[in-house]
Design a protein that fits this description.
Distance between the termini: 37 Å
Number of domains: 2
Helix content: 10-25%
Largest sheet: 6 strands, mixed, barrel
CATH architecture of the largest domain: Beta Barrel
Number of strands: 12
Strand order of the largest sheet: 3-7-4-6-5-8
C-alpha cells in the first residue's frame, strides 16, 4: 500500500497551477456518430490504429478536468477510466512509451487512441498519420492514480464490469439514462482553461519520457463486429455484413464465435468497411490489428 501511495503522489504531482487529478469513469456518450460506454479496467489490452488527438490549445480542460498540453505525453481514450496510464507500442517500428490518458476520444471511431504531439513524436507517428498500435493498461500505475484521487471524485465500483463483447450493444439504441453530448471537455468550467497563460505550457507530468525499443511487429488490419457465445447469433450478425465470416476460438467446451472482415490492404479500406458496418447498424464494429 505504501508503494502505491508513493506512486500515486508522483503521478499526481503535475504542475501546481493545474487542477488536481479527478477520477472519472463517466456516463455513456455519443461521439463521432457512435456510442461509447466508459468502464473501469486495469487489465485492458487492445490493438488498433493510433493517431494524434487534436484539441483547441494549451491548457484546454480535458474530460477529467486536467489541463491538456501537446508538450506532454498524454492521450485520449473512449472508455478507460480517467486518468489511467497505458503502454502504447507503435507496432510498425517497435517503440513503446508510457502515456497518461486524461481525455475522451478520438472522435474517429476507427481509432483506438489519440496521442498528444509529444507522445506521437516520441513514438514516431507522423503528423496527420495513422499507425498500428498496441495499448496495454499499466495496472499498478493506474490503480495508484485511482487510489490517489479524492474520495468525493471516485465513483462506487460496479459489481460487474460491462461486457467486453462488442456486439453486446449491436442492436440497441443508447442505454437508459445515456445522453448524447459532446466530450466532457466542452462542459468543463472555463476557469480551468485560464489556469495559466496559453503562451506558457504547464510542465510535464511525472511520467518518464522513456522510449523502449523492440522489433517491429506489424499485423493484419481487421474489422471485428463482435464476439458471441452462440454460432447461430454470430451467423445472423455476419449476414448483415457482406463478406464477413464467423471464426470459432477458445477451448472446445467453451467455444466463442467472432465475426470478422479482412484483412485489408490499407487503412482506407478498413475505414470504408467500418463506415458500411456502422451504417448497417453494427454499432460494435471496430478496427483491430491481428
Amino acid at each position: 500500500m505504501m508503494r502505491a501511495g508513493l506512486l500515486a503522489a508522483a503521478l499526481l504531482a503535475g504542475c501546481t497551477s493545474s487542477p488536481p487529478a479527478r477520477y472519472v469513469v463517466g456516463d455513456p456518450y455519443r461521439m463521432g456518430g457512435t456510442w461509447s460506454y466508459p468502464r473501469e479496467d486495469f487489465s485492458s489490452v487492445e490493438t488498433g490504429l493510433g493517431t494524434r488527438h487534436t484539441v483547441a490549445g494549451w491548457s484546454t480542460p480535458t474530460a477529467n478536468g486536467e489541463a491538456w498540453s501537446d508538450g506532454r505525453v498524454l492521450a485520449a481514450h473512449r472508455t478507460l477510466q480517467l486518468p489511467a496510464v497505458v503502454a502504447v507500442t507503435n507496432l510498425e517500428n517497435g517503440r513503446t512509451l508510457l502515456v497518461r490518458v486524461n481525455d475522451r476520444g478520438p472522435a474517429d471511431p476507427g481509432r483506438v487512441i489519440g496521442l498528444s504531439d509529444r507522445a506521437a513524436t516520441l513514438l514516431g507517428i507522423p503528423a496527420g498519420g495513422t499507425v498500428q498500435v498496441r495499448v496495454a493498461v499499466d495496472g499498478d500505475r493506474s490503480r495508484a492514480l485511482a487510489e490517489g484521487a479524492s474520495p468525493a471524485d471516485r465513483p462506487p465500483l460496479p459489481i460487474e464490469a460491462a461486457p467486453r463483447a462488442a456486439v453486446a450493444a449491436e442492436s440497441l439504441d443508447a442505454l437508459p439514462g445515456a445522453r448524447a453530448a459532446a466530450p466532457a471537455r466542452a462542459a468543463a468550467p472555463t476557469r480551468q482553461a485560464a489556469a495559466q497563460p496559453a503562451s506558457a505550457p504547464p510542465p510535464d507530468l511525472l511520467l518518464p519520457e522513456t522510449v523502449t525499443p523492440s522489433a517491429p511487429s506489424p499485423g493484419r488490419i481487421m474489422l471485428e463486429a463482435g464476439t458471441l457465445s452462440r454460432p447461430d447469433a454470430a451467423a445472423r450478425l455476419a449476414a448483415r455484413m457482406p463478406g464477413a465470416r464467423v471464426e470459432a476460438f477458445g477451448p472446445a467446451r467453451d467455444l466463442q464465435y467472432r465475426v470478422r472482415l479482412g484483412p485489408f490492404d490499407s487503412v482506407a479500406q478498413a475505414d470504408a468497411a467500418l463506415r458500411r458496418s456502422l451504417a448497417a447498424g453494427v454499432s460494435g464494429a471496430r478496427i483491430l490489428v491481428d
